[in-house]
Specification:
Elements (H helix, E strand, L loop, with lengths): L2 H33 L4 H9 L4 H42 L16 H15 L3 E2 L5 E2 L1 H4 L25 E2 L4 H11 L3 E10 L11 E11 L4 H16 L5 E8 L2 E10 L8 E2 L2 E2 L8 E10 L1 H6 L8 E8 H8 L13 H4 L4
Parallel strand pairs: 1-4
Antiparallel strand pairs: 2-3, 4-5, 5-11, 6-7, 7-10, 8-9, 10-11
Helix pairs in contact: 1-3, 2-3
The structure holds zinc ion.
Amino acid sequence: MKLGQIGDLRQILEIQLADAEGRLRQIKDRSVELTGKKSRLAEFKKQIGKIDTEARAEFAQAVQSIEKQIRDALDGAESSLNERISALKAERDAVDVTIPGRRPRTGHLHVLTILRQKIEDIFVSMGYTIEDDREIETDYYNFDALNIPEGHPARESQDTFYTTTGLALRSQTSTVQIRAMERHGVPIRILAPGKVFRRDTPDMTHTPMFHQLEGLCVDKGITMAHLKGTVTEWLKRMYGADTVTRFRPSYFPFTEPSAEFDFSCFKCHGTGQFEGERCRPCKGAGWIELGGSGMVHPNVLRACGVDPTVYSGFAFGFGLERMAALMFNIDDIRHMFENDVRFLEQFN
Ligand SMILES: [Zn+2]
């Protein structure tokens, strides 16, 4: 029992005790009223002597009978109240406020929060600000402004959750890029962490809600070299100075050119072998595929009122659950959302 609860219990007992004592006083007052010198019973008793002899015995008996009934009722009520009062007093005195309370279980941050904050700290130290925004978006912010054309598979309702009023649960955190550029203009350097939603059937590597982290840097003269330098610096600070990154050409509607980025495995340091066996996080490849990146598409800049002939920028994004699963050897990302304390407590 917590200290606060002990205090509450004592208070409840005190209230009950005061109530019982109040009722006992009422009964005593009632007793005086019904049987005292000024009561009607006293009047009747006085009259006994004045009554005719033949009727006197009967009258006296009736008065005595009434008196007995009244006294019995009052005595009964009084003794049961006295019992209750002494029981309440015993209970109150048994509550020992000097016994140390049981410590409440201390909570701690969720594994995803720990990882997110670590990444945020690195980017804040590189001059980025953390940007947050809404999770329910219009098609314009979720698709159009991101250069995702009508008819693109991502826009299909089998991939995106829609509300009954036609709003989309954002399917990527890139929406924050658009809103941030509209709000702050350029130059801009932001990191946007947040929940995203896709109509995936939950399995070991998929959940319909997961977290993305997205970075955006727009300024004059920004090139692919800045993208590579930034991502490499971040991963070196995360996994050690010997971490190597590589970029593979890819395609995303909102970047051009686009690249997927990998980094040398933090466990086997790119060898693919760990303690004589095939390394688990990288599956023996030596590389870990982490996310997508590229130079912000001129159409995206234009949608935000930014002149792509003057400004250029890079963006990158990746999933937090996948990164956490690799780092902490979690074989099923659903564990992260099932709130089993035995699982969560491992990451204190
Ligand atoms: Zn490895």
